[in-house]
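Listing 4. Sequential folding, example run.
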Amino acid sequence: MNAKTLESLLIMYEEILEKIDLGIHVIDSNERTVIYNKKMREIEGMGIEDVLDKNLMDVFDFGAAEESTLLQVLKSRESIQNVKQTYFNNKGQEITTINHTFPITENGTVIGAMEIAKDVTKLEKMIHENMSKKDEIRYTFDQILGQSPLLKEAIETGKRAARTASSVLIIGEIGTGKELFARSIHHDSPRSEQAFFSQNCAALPDTLMETLLFGIEEQPDAEGRPGLFEQADGGTILFDEIDSLSPALQTKLLKVIQEKKVRREGGNTDIFVDVRILATISEDPIDAIAAGNLRKDLYYRLSAVSIFIPPLRERKDDIELLTSAFIDKYNHLFGMDVLSVDEEVKNYFQQYEWPGNIRELEHVIEGAMNLMDHEETISFDHLPIQFRNKSVNCGLSNDLEKAEGFLYQSDKAILPLDDYIQEAETYYITKALQHHDFNITKTAKALGMSRQNLQYRIRKYNIGKV
């Protein structure tokens, strides 16, 4: 093989090492780093200049030399596989990896050691966080504030669902309080004294999520670990944003729900579990299925009970009550004595559409109270500047001008606004249904709402075929 071919091969090997999605760390017989790829740099949060050609023990803190799997292999000449290792980088940051470590030999002599690492730092952190959630404050339906008919209907559905062990799918936009509903269902249920775990489905890549959910089987040279299903046995797991879970993991989740048993990663024994499944989704599940983000069979299995939480823009009568509650909360946290918001702020809150829902309202109140001194009333100038800059009148002028003839008819008496809105909405929904031959799916899509939302309005306004 000529020099040019060798050079080309070297470039190829270097490219592969840099692109592979596993950490690669190689030391020579003098314990100095000779290969340190991009993924390993990402895992350990260091640059190549921090590690390359430096002695391993001068860079990392393992507690003791014998805890470094690379050094163990270098000395023992034997491979170590599937071992968890926790250590610290040169900035004092804790790193946790699952390692496969092998000796590198030449003519029977060990000339170095190679480590292939999978980052589980986030996984370990999440496991500790989940375990700490067992003793959190108990949430109940009494803590869900509001008088909106839509909200009351959701609460009643949740209370009825709490009595059973059925799966529940909670549907609502981001910031509407889906997790509060889930925790209230758990704490109103016969499982209230058992564990409750909440898992964000978008928080981890597939490989780590699978380990978190199903656990790892004990090996001769590696400790085992139960997954969330085992830890939650007898209790409840909430899968937050279920449509963020990959199709492959959705399939495995469906199998666990159906068969009520799990198998640890690397194991061959089924473990029976009794876990109630709650799930949330921020979009219409029918849209999520159509987009390929949610398996239809999993949706049917999860939606034995479906709870629809209305967005804040559909329950604006509750804004004043929620505002007072958030003021009380931050008075307690900040040691303040704020009483209310002024009329200008009240009017602004009523006009605003609240895309971030209740969570956005809380952040606005918290931000405003951080800008106050000893005032008792939140004024417009106290509101966070990014919120103040959002114009509630943007784009309304032209629309109002065009609609004036329809909205106001000089030969008729002026109706109360709520009555007129109901009359207009009933008329428009009826016309839309007639246009689509009373096909709910097509009509809902044309109106830009969910099927369930349309069906609610049909019941509310008593709309029927004519």
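-- end of first protein; second protein begins --
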Amino acid sequence: MTYRRHTIVPPYLLRRLADSDESGVAVIAQQTLLTDQSLRDGRGAQQPAAGYPRTAVSVGEAAPRREISTANNTETLPGTVVRREGDAATGDLAADEAYDGFGATWELFHDAYARDSIDGAGMLLPGTVHYGRSYDNAFWDGERMVFGDGDGQIFGRFTASLEVIGHELTHGVTERTAGLIYSGQPGALNEHISDVFGSLVKQRHLGQDAAAADWLIGADLLLPGVDGVALRSMIAPGTAYDDPRLGKDPQPDHMDRFVTTTDDNGGVHINSGIPNRAFALAARAIGGQAWVGAGQVWYDVLTGGQLDARADFARFAALTIDAAKTRFGDGSPELTAIAEGWQQVGVTAASTEPGPVPPAATDAELLLRRTGGVTGVVRERRTSLDALPPSDAKKWNSLLSSNALVDVATGHPVRDGFCYRVACEALSVDVTVAEQDLSKSQRHLFQRTLLDENK
């Protein structure tokens, strides 16, 4: 499977800093944006060496398996290992914070939901600290968590925020369960779920109930002198910061203020404020430990098999209401609180019966690249769907709007066999598939699309 790289600081915030009158802040933000773009494009970071452990099944009693490395202020991954499971503290604050944060995240998912690591099968939890020089971000790349040290003016070290660690690792859980696409409302739900469990990691670690929790994401990232308390507030979206350099927090707290934008993959870090507030309101209304009540319902939906990768807010709301009824009973306080939480943010629960898959926009851009074969010749075409013959455009619409390619995605074609990269940013599709894994009709569609490149 091809995994998307998730950053905690969204690009629109970095672009704001890149325009700052403070040259030091602007230069670092510009460099962070360039680094983030190069990593999204698959450049700039050394891939793990052959044989690097990715997933391992636990043997015996479940326990976390952590491995922390340092990049020594380079952009080379995975870096040099400095602490493995059971090792004593290193004295390097970032490395030890990452180690402890991984442990707290593992404990929430294991102790509260009986999940053994990200994949549910004892997956190694690898992380790299001291990535780049003054790198203003942290990210999950599908295999590991990577932390920058911050610029020392706006952002401090990214290991300092426990909920950020929990947030990014939860992207790995979502990838391996519902697989929510990273665009529009499904992408905002993807971010929302990470905020939920990131906050629950911190609450459980601190022994807080829902009333005592601050419901902030990134509360320990902003340095003194910044007019703000965090990157996001789940209980009060839109109030996390209002700073001359950062701008004002753009998150809406109600569907009436939903932001329609092409930026940020359709506003995934922005519109997540709406479901975030619904969850926080529900958790406070239920009371007690949020990971036991609302958190359990959200986990049931995430892992229950009914959450489609392209679910919108209404579908997700309906699934949480059904899950609350199943787990806690009709008329239960949990069910009432969750239903009212969605109502307060203007989300009307839709039917939980699967509806038709929406077609892709006809002007969506498509990249199709074929590599491999005996000769190794690369063939590529970039086109919009409406430039294709109508029958093929319809077939691509259906294919890109389904999970068919994601289900057969692979980076390991047979020797001398063809391999295709298919990318459509409008639908957050970017996968690599081996030709032998395609159906006959899919192979013919791919071949026709490439052969028609000069027409």
